[in-house]
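Risk register update: the risk of archive-format incompatibility is retired. Evidence:
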Amino acid sequence: MSRPVRIAIAAATVAATLVPPLAAAHAQAPGVTASASAYKGLPDGTKTAKSLVIGVDGTRYDKLLKADAPNIKALAAGGMTATSNLYANPLSPTVSGPGWSTIATGVWPDKHGVKDNTFAGSHYDAYPDMATRLETATPAASTLVAASWNPVADTIFSSRTDLRIPESENDVKTASDAADYLAHGNPDSTFLHFDEVDEAGHSSGGGSQAYLDAIHQADALVRQVVNAVRSRPTYAQENWLIVLTTDHGHTDAGGHGGNTAAERQTFVIADGSGFTPGSTRYDVKLVDIAPTVLKHEGVVINPAWGLDGKPIDEITPDAFDTRRGALQTRTDETGIPAATKGYTRQPPAGWSIDNSAMPTGGVTEWRGWSFATDEFWTAAQLGQGRETNVRARNVFAVADSDEWDDKAHGTGPFDSTLVSPVYQLHGAATAALSYASNYVVDGPQTGDVHISFDGGAPQLVKSYRSNSNTVEHLTVQVPAGATTAQLRFRYTGTNSAFWTVDQVVLQP
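Archived output:
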């Protein structure tokens, strides 16, 4: 379900860069005691490392590029931009409750549990928001949330946040309140949510001039809050991270919740130390925002938290990502846009594909293991679960018996094996194997991971026979005296579904 259409607030004063201080303080979060060092109910921060996350609801990246949005584009020019795609059903529809929960918690909907805007089934106790984690790690930190869509402030972010301001669908007030606190108070971590781009999408459509105008208006609000940060008398001594993002896109006609490319569009813009000005990445996703903010604020990420995201500076390309420059346009597929480059059957250096058991024929793109991007592979056929492949990054390996079977082929099932490079073991008694894996069943199929030592017989490490979407962390026993290891990912299927594998690491 999507949120109901609301009437947008007139933005005649949007272009203002700073506004006078508020006349009255907002209510404090439970447990917060006002002190002489508090500003209008917000405790004084303690850190020089500070963060500002700005969420602009329902903003399509392709339309942002076309819009008159010089301030957002200036942030991108000064830092990093990463585009990626959301999940879709059956993981979750592309609506705000799951989207903002994913951004705030750093985990995907199959962990935080939010599947719609009722928030039924949420697991915020196990996967709390980034402000709650910061307050838990550093109780003296000052945290602020101001949101035009009230559930962001009063449901997704918990009462551990020092000050939460639900603004009741008023972006101008969200910006003015936030600018006041940023300029005159001392928050360490601030989260803002603007809503009126999404409203324009609902009322006029993502392909309309009104939608572009709403992005322009949001851009002026971004200028207002960023200028407030930069006007701080202590700004030169502070280390600011500014992130701008969105929770979903919109169809041209208006609306979201489905699995089209326009609805699944998301982006992350990050401006701060460590980000190369004007840089572009394809391996950063919404779940990476929370851990990036937490690390910036000095919080050590505990693996026991089970976050799906990583601090951006810890995300490294894998071997499959090196194939991006070799990606091709479609060959046999007809549903994928003709200009989209997104697949190759040629493996990266050190990797190989054993197709000796594959029948001849079938759809060329998917004859055996291939390497693909999300925008290419999911477009092959919407609504068959490919949109759940959220734990892969950039280019990933995919074996898809369902799509391969759409063209005549020789007798027998899809049967292909992806073979890794040879890894050195350096005398270790065990090896740690990790990889992102999304295994979806829709008929007869098998998925098996084998390891061989010093060229010996393959030994089974892991079998898949039912749906599984995770990052595996496995410990492999190394035989005494073994010096090398090699992995094999074998998938078989008879017009079934698929298996994706990414970020394969074997370390002694």
